[in-house]
Amino acid sequence: MAVSLAKGQRVSLEKVAPGLSEVFIGLGWDVKSTDTGSDFDLDSSVFMLGANEKLISDSHFIFYNNLTSPDPDKSLQHLGDNLTGVGEGDDEVIKINLKKVPADVQKIVVTVTIHEAQQRNQNFGQVQNAFVRVVNAQTKQEAVRYDLVEDYSIETALIMAELYRKDGEWRLNAVGAGYQGGLQALLDRYS
């Protein structure tokens, strides 16, 4: 049974799923039935950070136009953009081989932003049932889940969770932090 986290909680992946090596990070959301006049397009992105909490290079920013990490093993792969978020389950998926992530990557930040949020007058207050979950890629068993319950009525970017190394193992932090300024705000933070 999966461990369910609340905002700000942290957990050792080794403790909840010993031996875990390959995972899927599943992200999901639903758009409330309010009509903003435009379709919603939410995008997941991943920032692979060094010990200084900054992107190691531009190619360590993983999103729909840069789907794989630059290391030879392609340890992190974004499985593509979902333009609508319609349907049950994960809307976007990121695959990570935890054993092959290069040692200089100390933190993997998983984010979701609204495409053209300002032009479309959209924010995360119009989104519901958002979640992030870590799934064992081999058994398909969910290991950890974090359901966002706050109302992000002015935010256009969310840091959903962080995977980070501590004492030689990977841990997950359920962040749930919202930002104004969309993807650019996150790029400014980590560049």
Short description:
Helix content is 9%, strand content 42%. It contains three helices and twelve strands; from the N terminus they run E-E-H-E-E-E-E-E-E-H-E-E-E-E-H. The protein has helices at residues 13-16, 117-120, 182-190; strands spanning 3-5, 10-12, 22-31, 42-49, 61-62, 76-78, 92-97, 107-114, 127-136, 142-147, 157-166, 169-179.
Describe this structure in words.
Helix content is about 10%, strand content about 40%. It has 3 helices and 12 strands; from the N terminus they run ββαββββββαββββα. The strands form 2 sheets. Strands 1-10-9-3-7-6 form a 6-stranded mixed sheet, with no helix packed on it. β9 and β10 (about 140-145) form a beta hairpin. The radius of gyration is 16 Å and the shape is globular. The model has no long low-confidence stretch (mean pLDDT about 90).
**Low-confidence sequence ranges:** none
The H/E string reads: EEHEEEEEEHEEEEH
How far apart the termini lie comes to: 37 Å
**Strand content bin:** 35-45%
What is the share of helical residues? under 10%
Number of DSSP helical runs: 3
Q: What spatial form do the alpha-carbon principal axes imply?
A: globular
Structural class, by secondary structure, is: mainly beta
- The count of β-strands is 12
Mean pLDDT: 92
Spatial order of the strands forming the largest sheet:
1-10-9-3-7-6
Q: What's the alpha carbon Rg, rounded to whole Å?
A: 16 Å
Largest sheet: 6 strands, mixed
